[in-house]
# Entry
Amino acid sequence: MGTIWVHAETNNGTVSTITLELLAKARELGDVVAVHAGGDAEQVAAELGEHGASKILSTGDLDGGLPGPALGSALADLAASEAPQAILFGTTYGGRDVAGRLSAKLDAPVITNIVDIIDSDGLVGIEPVFCGTTNVNTKFTGSKPGIFLVRPKSFNAESSGGSPAEVGALAVPELGATGSAKVVSQFVEESDGPKLDEAGVVVSGGRGLGEAEKYHMIEDLAKKLGGAAGASRAIVDAGWVPYSYQVGQTGKVVKPDVYIAAGISGATQHMVGMKGSKTIIAINKDPEAPIFSIADLGIIGDVHKVLPALLAALGE
Amino acid sequence: MKVAVCVKQIPDPADPGEIDPNTKTLKRDTKLILDESDSYGVEMALQLVGDDGEVVLVSMVPNNERNGLNNALAMGAHSALLVSDDALSGTDALGTAKVLAAAIKRIGADLVLAATESSDGYTGTVPEQVAELLGLPSVTFAKEVSVDGGNLAVKRQTEDGYDEVTCPLPALVSVTAGVVEPRYPSFKGIMAAKSKPVEELGLADLGIDAASVGWAGGGQEIVSIELAPAREAGEIIEDEGDGHERIVAFLQELKVI
# Structure
C-alpha cells in the first residue's frame, strides 16, 4: 500500500468533520499522513491520530496568508521526493484552493466531486452526474500523485483508535506574488437554530416560492420542526437569501433525517447536495419535476397553499 | 483598469444532459449559452472599470461558438478572445486553465475574474489553476469586491461566515453567484455587440503544445460509466386540499413531530 496524504482543515484546534471523513477512507487505502496549514498542529495531533493519521506535516501559522498558494507549493515540493499515491481534499473553500494550486504546480489533474474511491488496479474516483442517476468512474494515468476532491459526507467519520500523530514541519517555499493575499479579519455569521449541514431536519425553498417575501414560510416551517432553512441556487442567485443558505454542489451538502424541498424542481446542482438525506419530502406543482424521482413523499401542489396549511396544522 | 473575465459557453442547463458513449464527455452539439454563473463576473467587471476601463472576455469553446459570448458583449464587455481548436477536444480543467492563462497573458489584465465553478462541469478548480499558472495571487469565493488604487478588498465566503482579505493587483478573483445583479442587455447593447472585436485563436497562436491538452494531456481516464443505484420510488400524490395532512402524518410516522 502506498502513502495517502489527507488535507487536514482545522480551526483553532477543532478538526473539521470532512477531514475526519477523509481520514476514514484514506486509512483503508494506505498509510495516512495529514497535511496541514495553521498554527494548531500540536492541538489536533491526538484527534488526527485517533482517526488514522500516523503523521501530521504542518506549515505552521501562515500569518494571514491563504492556504492555497502556501500549502499547494509546499506539497508540490514534498511530492517530488515523497511520491504519495494520492492526495485527498474535501470540497471546501480551502480544499479547492489548495488542490487547484497543487494541480497546476505538479501539472497533474484533479478528479473532482467524487463520493467514493475504490482500489482497482489504481485508485478510481466515483463521481455522480445527472442528478445522481449516473456514476462516472475515473482513474489517473501516469505516475504523478492522484489529486482527489471529495464531497462532504461521503464517508463516516469514525475513529480507529490510533495513537497521536507525530508532528513534523512542512517547508513553504518563497511564494512571491502568489502569497500576497492576506486575511485581515474574520467574521462568523451567527444564526438561530442548528447549522444547515448538521441539522436533523432541513427545509429548503426554491424558485417556486415566486418571490423573496414568501421565503419566511420556509424559515417558519424549519423553526417549527427544529430544523434549519436552506435554499436552491436559483433563489440564492436571485438574491433572496445569502449564499450560506445554498444547498447543493457549490453550497452545503446535507444529509438530514428529513429533507423538505418546497418549490424546488431538482436541478443536478441541488440534488447532489441533498440526495443522501434519509427521507425526502417534495412539494412542487409540476408533476414532471425531477425532485419527485427521489422523493419518499411527493405532493403535487402549489406551495402557496400547501405550506400555509401545513404551518397552520403544526400550530404555534 | 483592464479586467479579463473568463466566460464559459455551455449547453442549456434546462435541457437534460447526455454523455456521448464514444468520447465519454458531455454532448455539446446543442446551441451553447452563456453560463449564468459567469454573468456575475461580467457585471462585476463592468462596475469595477466604470467609464474609463476595459473589459475583455476570454472563452474556450468548440467551433468558435459565440452565441453566449454575444450576450456578455451585449451587457457591455468591450471585446473578446475566443480560443477554439480541434486538439482541445476532451480537455480537462487543468488543460482549460492552461489555455485561459495563455490567453489572459496576451491581454495583460490588471484583474482576472471568474465564476467559482461552471454550471456544467462544476470542478471549481479552474480559477485557482489559472492564478497559479499566471503567478498571480487570488481570492476565491468572493461575495463582495472593491478596488482601491492598486489593492483589492474582498469579502471571501468561509464555512461559517466570511473573511476580509486584501490583495495587491494584478490578481485573480472568483465571484459567487449573487455578488452583483447582472444587467439585462439593452437593445442598443445587443446591436453594438455585433461590431465588437472578437479575436479567434488556436493553440498555435497561444504557443500551447497540443500534446499538453486534450485527451492525451489530461492524465486521467474514464474507466466506466454506470447507472447509480436508484432510490426506491416514493408515494406521489396530488394535492386536493389535503396534501398538508399527508405530510403531517408522514412526519409523525418519522417521529419528527
About this structure: Chain B touches chain A through 82 residues (CB under 8 Å).
